[in-house]
């Protein structure tokens, strides 16, 4: 059995979700190869070669793979993936964009967002916004799978000594082009990797009030998230959204401030180790999952909490 | 141009689903069903394209049981021109659905196909991408803005770090994210009119598509329940608990 892991990378570095995906591959068992596709990705390939447990790194360095356009990357992954027992990618926006396209090219089902490996062909994944866990078995010749990063502890980024091999294949469908991107800037830790997350909801009332959460987050070294209500109301950008349709987080501590706790929000954070809820409505559903609940006005409680830290 | 919109009948998003006692699945008997929220956004976008004079005809398609006609009628009431039901009683995987949609795309020859980014029951987020692969079209997934310009469509996509814009050759596949638009409600006169709009029913066999699957569900369980928490009385008590009991700060 040989497993191909599609590396997620940005700005010349391997993204953390790749390490969780390699961990899932290690649970399946077998040789682990990593594919790095992009343009000018030499440094990424070198970093990938150091990941613990990886035996080979394949590098496809080509202008067609810049910006990870699925029309070009998917045929590459499908061509290389044919020779593997499993093809894995992190369930990031890139992984979700590319991998179903790969599966269809290979004429197999894709299994989305696994949270555990039961055996080489059997996996667990959440359905219905995390309200049920399905155990699924695949008989596909190549098992094409996206991995939910919070389901697996990251492997070490250092210590491996894999061989790096260039891949010549160039696929350029010519049907799509990158126009531009607008990335949100933040000095705080990345939401999906943060040990502590402080999130605000509709109860924050406006975008300006999020400054209270930023101040608290900076004291804790935390990332700041939001509920869909806060994003839709325009308080914060959408890449801060935690939930079924946003990001899935599983930090050590999740502090939900002014968030009622709708099913869709809980889907994104209920695997946090400790959940704290601060809400003035004592009937809010968030209190049913919170380890520590405080019924209070957030505009008094949050500054007080910040002062006590 | 012709726009094809795929919709799915799913359990209503407000329903708290329960897992069946025999672990064979979730209990959908007597549960309210609706159009998947992302599909509503897809229908709305198609209708707006028609209102702008970009789209000339909107065909809505679903794959599912005969009861899924309700969701097609909803889409017709929202502004779709006609509907196609690919009737299949069994629950199909995304690849089978994508193959069936490919057959419908071949027949209808739309310039743009709009789907939701994921269905809230299976949470797969696969069908649009698979349909794009099978048809050889470009894909604009997780779209928060769609602009048709000549023979291209510019799609602004929600990605992990922010937004990305891509230009796709038509025909193309677009999957909708939450912020693409706010779907309208169907008015009563439009609901009445929708009853007279054409609705064609076909079978997977008639489309010549095999719906065989490489995946089977062995069991479905309820997630592990969290142990009950406590209510603290003050911020000071909260900090004390987090430091000394939970040891997370």
UniProtKB/TrEMBL annotation, chain A:
Output the superkingdom of the source species.
Bacteria
* Cofactor: how bound: Binds 1 FAD per dimer.
Q: Pfam families given for it?
A: ETF, ETF_alpha
InterPro entries named in the record: DHS-like_NAD/FAD-binding_dom, ETF_a/b_N, ETF_a/FixB, ETF_alpha_N, ETF_asu_C, ETF_asu_C_CS, Rossmann-like_a/b/a_fold
Its cofactor is:
FAD
Q: Residues in domain Electron transfer flavoprotein alpha/beta-subunit N-terminal?
A: 3-182
Q: Where does FAD bind?
A: 202, 227-228, 241-245, 258-265, 279
GO biological-process terms attached to the record = fatty acid beta-oxidation using acyl-CoA dehydrogenase
User: What UniProt keywords apply to this chain's record, in alphabetical order?
Assistant: Electron transport, FAD, Flavoprotein, Transport
Q: Name one GO molecular function term.
A: electron transfer activity
Assembly, per entry: Heterodimer of an alpha and a beta subunit.
Q: Which family does it belong to?
A: Belongs to the ETF alpha-subunit/FixB family.
The record describes the protein's role as: The electron transfer flavoprotein serves as a specific electron acceptor for other dehydrogenases. It transfers the electrons to the main respiratory chain via ETF-ubiquinone oxidoreductase (ETF dehydrogenase).
The protein in question is named Electron transfer flavoprotein subunit alpha
Source organism of this protein record: Pseudomonas laurentiana
UniProtKB/TrEMBL annotation, chain B:
Q: Which family does it belong to?
A: Belongs to the ETF beta-subunit/FixA family.
Q: Which residues form the signal peptide?
A: none
Keywords from UniProt, A to Z, are: Electron transport, Transport
Keyword Transmembrane appears in the UniProt entry? no
**What cofactor requirement does the entry state?**
AMP
Q: How does it assemble?
A: Heterodimer of an alpha and a beta subunit.
Q: What is this protein called?
A: Electron transfer flavoprotein subunit beta
Gene Ontology terms for molecular function:
electron transfer activity
Q: Which residues form the Electron transfer flavoprotein alpha/beta-subunit N-terminal domain?
A: 23-211
Give the matching PANTHER family. Answer: ELECTRON TRANSFER FLAVOPROTEIN BETA-SUBUNIT (PTHR21294), ELECTRON TRANSFER FLAVOPROTEIN SUBUNIT BETA (PTHR21294:SF8)
Quick one: a GO biological-process term for this protein?
A: carboxylic acid catabolic process
The UniProt record lists the keyword Transport: yes
């Amino acid at each position: 059995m040989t497993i191909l892991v599609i590396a997620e990378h940005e700005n010349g570095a391997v993204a953390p979700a790749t390490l969780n995906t390699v961990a899932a591959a290690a649970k399946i068992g077998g040789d682990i190869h990593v594919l790095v596709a992009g343009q000018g990705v030499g440094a990424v390939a070198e970093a990938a070669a150091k990941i613990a447990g990886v035996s080979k790194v394949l590098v496809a360095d080509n202008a067609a793979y810049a910006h990870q356009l699925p029309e070009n990357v998917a045929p590459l992954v499908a061509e290389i993936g044919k020779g593997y027992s499993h093809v894995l990618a992190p369930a990031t926006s890139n992984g979700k964009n590319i991998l179903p396209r790969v599966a269809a090219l290979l004429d197999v089902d894709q299994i989305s967002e696994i949270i555990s490996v039961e055996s080489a062909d059997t996996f667990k994944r959440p359905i219905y916004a995390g309200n049920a866990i399905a155990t699924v078995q695949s008989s596909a010749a190549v098992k094409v799978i996206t991995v939910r990063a919070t389901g697996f502890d990251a492997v070490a980024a250092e210590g491996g000594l894999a061989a790096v091999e260039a891949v010549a294949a160039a696929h350029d469908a010519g049907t799509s082009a990158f126009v531009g991107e607008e990335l949100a800037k933040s000095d705080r830790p990345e939401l999906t990797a943060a040990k502590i997350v402080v999130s605000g909801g509709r109860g924050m009332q406006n975008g300006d009030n999020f400054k209270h959460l930023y101040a608290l987050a900076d004291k804790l070294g935390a990332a700041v998230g939001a509920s869909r209500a806060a994003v839709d109301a325009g308080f914060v950008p959408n890449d801060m959204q935690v939930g079924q349709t946003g990001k899935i987080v599983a930090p050590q501590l999740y502090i939900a401030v002014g968030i009622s706790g709708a099913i869709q929000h809980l889907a994104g954070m209920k695997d946090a180790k400790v959940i704290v809820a601060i809400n003035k409505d004592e009937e809010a559903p968030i209190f049913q999952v919170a380890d520590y609940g405080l019924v209070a006005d957030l505009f008094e409680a949050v500054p007080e909490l910040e002062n006590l830290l | 141009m012709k726009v094809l919109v795929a919709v799915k009948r799913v359990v209503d998003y407000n329903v708290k689903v329960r897992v069946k006692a025999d672990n064979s699945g979730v209990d959908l008997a007597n549960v309210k069903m609706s159009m998947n929220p992302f599909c509503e956004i897809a229908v709305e976008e198609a209708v707006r394209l028609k209102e702008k004079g970009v789209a000339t005809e909107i065909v809505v398609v679903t794959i599912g049981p005969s009861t899924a006609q309700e969701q097609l009628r909803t889409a017709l009431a929202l502004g779709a021109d006609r509907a196609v039901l690919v009737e299949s009683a069994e629950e199909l995987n995304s690849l089978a659905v994508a193959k069936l949609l490919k057959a419908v795309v071949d027949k209808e020859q739309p310039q743009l196909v709009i789907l939701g980014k994921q269905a809230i029951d299976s949470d797969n987020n696969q069908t649009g991408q698979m349909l794009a692969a099978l048809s050889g079209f470009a894909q604009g997934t997780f779209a928060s803005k769609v602009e048709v310009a000549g023979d291209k469509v510019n799609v602004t996509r929600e990605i992990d770090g922010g937004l990305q814009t891509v230009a796709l050759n038509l025909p193309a596949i677009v999957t909708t994210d939450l912020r693409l638009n706010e779907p309208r409600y169907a008015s009563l006169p439009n609901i009445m009119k929708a009853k007279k709009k054409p609705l064609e029913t076909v079978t997977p066999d008639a489309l010549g598509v095999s719906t065989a699957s490489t995946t089977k569900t062995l069991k479905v369980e309820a997630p592990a329940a969290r142990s009950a928490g406590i209510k603290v009385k003050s911020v000071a008590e909260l900090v004390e608990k987090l430091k000394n009991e939970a040891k997370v700060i």
